[in-house]
Amino acid sequence: MSFRSTLQSDLRRSSLSGRTVMAWAALVSLVTCSGLGLSRVAHAQTPNPSSVRVVVNSNLDGKIRADEALTLREAIALTNGTLNKADLSAAEQAQITPSLEHSRIEFDLPSDQTTIRLRALLPTILQPGLVVDGTSQTGYVADKGSVPAPVVALTAAEDVEVFRGLTIAADQVQVKGLSFYGFTAQHQTTATTPPADIFIAHRLVPEKHREEDNPEVTYPYEDEQDIPPQGVVIEANWLGLSPEGMDVQAPRSAFGVSIYNAVGTRILNNRIANHDSSAVITSVRAEQTEIANNMIAGNGVAGMPDAIRLEGRIAGSQIRANQITNNAGSGIYLYRPEGAIQIKDNQIVGNGQRFRRAAVVLMGDDHQVIGNTIQDQPGPGVLVTAYPTSNRNIIQENQFANLKGLSIDLIARDNRFLDRFSRLSINSVDLAARSSTRVQDYQIGDGPNPPRNSDQRQRDTANRGINTPQFFSSVFYWMDGQVHLDGKADPGAEVVLYQVLEQGDLQGPLSKPMMSVTADEEGRFTATLTDVQPGDQFSAIATHPDYGTSEPALNVEIQLLDVSAE
């Protein structure tokens, strides 16, 4: 019986959780489907061949053999140290030269044969520091103003199923200037292994820990080959796209980049589009991940709908300066993560094309959402869940527009105003009756929260139910070229005033931050605005370091004081 069959039988007998079964299946597939024998990987030392430069000059794929052309499969095997140069032909050996630094795989394909159609999963990349450089292909033109179109493309052959483009299990690997598309698997209720354009994970769970219930999280790393890869860089690629762009005839990949278990991965300056599921997804471990300056559009059309979906260990990660547009669900969705991240300076526009969801969904503590443009969403702007407990999330300096919900929505586990916010007639709602927060409220929001007036309300509401600022009047008067606004908030909170540029909503959206003031020890705040006109509307949010950021205040309007009536 094969190892795969034996393992699956053992899993059924032990009744492990569905997530653990999926994790085990992924780990087994990582080894067995990449052409590496289990016993060899489990006991062999990490290969350390001399650094080489290998030039791929054939787009063919198949079994490794000595012939006149060197393939990508052979190049990876050479850099892994599992294929000897002496086993190749003289013509192939001529494509291999010493490299002064790390090993490199470069391309010199015929101009009409630049698409590599894989017949099977490529070997896992095991050589630390390897550079797979699609920009080396003749015809590649660098463009500092955008992500240049790749020349070399990787996809699955028409008559076979290849569920990953590249699998990376070594430190400091770089992949750049390539196109990936068409990497998926037959969809079932639970996928047996994560399909993706690029999959990043450790090599193999040590044998002594294979009986643990959740070994990918709990085992100590006793062998350096089993440590999750660090410092992988994915840069200037087109993921989910052929070199021709959004080709509706091209087969779609399932996911773009799947970080199953890695540290310090950098996903920079890529176009990631047209996937059945998320453009970027994490699973077990993804601390210090950097997702920056990417164009992420049109993903989630037939599977996991959120453009970026992070779970597992993600502490120290950043999502910054990306264009996240027209994806099927949320632009960014954090699902029960461990650790805090920063979401900064992104354009998160026009998402929710298939499902009504918030543009950004936060679970967990101490996240920062700063300086983003969030608009055209069929749900709230930033939603913070109440369960799991989510506190001290800072949401500042963002600009919101055209939302179907609040700019910031803090979910309460039991919000009696929920039905009213769902736009039922006010006459059909019993405000004294309790109504429970539903699953969909964690996606589309539950609306304004009541005042935080008890410890229970603090515990049951995101960001400990920090109170929304309350202005002392719904109308303030413009006199002598200025207006004075005053109100109350939690003592010591920073209150940021926003101009509201859209008409019709009672609370926002928070269009343009204007100024900030601090509530005194009694919770009172006062602000003077000079660059305003009668008819302008304003709202406010409060941020306290112990709680986080509040929902937006009810709008107030500036009117001209009519002194002639006196």
General description of the model:
With 566 residues, the protein is mostly beta strands. The chain is built from nine helices and 40 strands. The strands form five sheets. A twelve-stranded mixed sheet has the order 2-1-3-5-8-11-14-17-20-23-26-29, covered by helices on one side. The chain has a ten-stranded parallel sheet with strand order 4-6-9-12-15-18-21-24-27-30, with no helix packed on it. It has a nine-stranded parallel sheet with strand order 7-10-13-16-19-22-25-28-31. The longest helix is centred in the N-terminal third of the chain and has 15 residues, at 18-32.
Map the helices and strands:
Elements: H1 3-14, H2 18-32, H3 38-43, E1 52-56, H4 72-80, H5 90-93, E2 96-98, E3 104-107, E4 115-118, E5 131-133, E6 153-156, E7 164-168, E8 174-176, E9 179-180, E10 196-200, H6 215-218, E11 233-235, E12 238-239, E13 257-261, E14 266-268, E15 271-273, E16 280-285, E17 290-292, E18 295-297, E19 308-313, E20 317-320, E21 323-325, E22 332-338, E23 341-344, E24 347-349, E25 360-362, E26 368-370, E27 373-377, E28 382-384, E29 394-396, E30 399-403, E31 408-410, H7 418-421, H8 441-444, H9 455-460, E32 470-471, E33 475-478, E34 483-488, E35 494-500, E36 512-518, E37 524-529, E38 537-544, E39 548-549, E40 556-560
Parallel strand pairs: 1-3, 3-5, 4-6, 5-8, 6-9, 7-10, 8-11, 9-12, 10-13, 11-14, 12-15, 13-16, 14-17, 15-18, 16-19, 17-20, 18-21, 19-22, 20-23, 21-24, 22-25, 23-26, 24-27, 25-28, 26-29, 27-30, 28-31, 33-40
Antiparallel strand pairs: 1-2, 32-34, 34-37, 35-36, 35-38, 38-39, 38-40
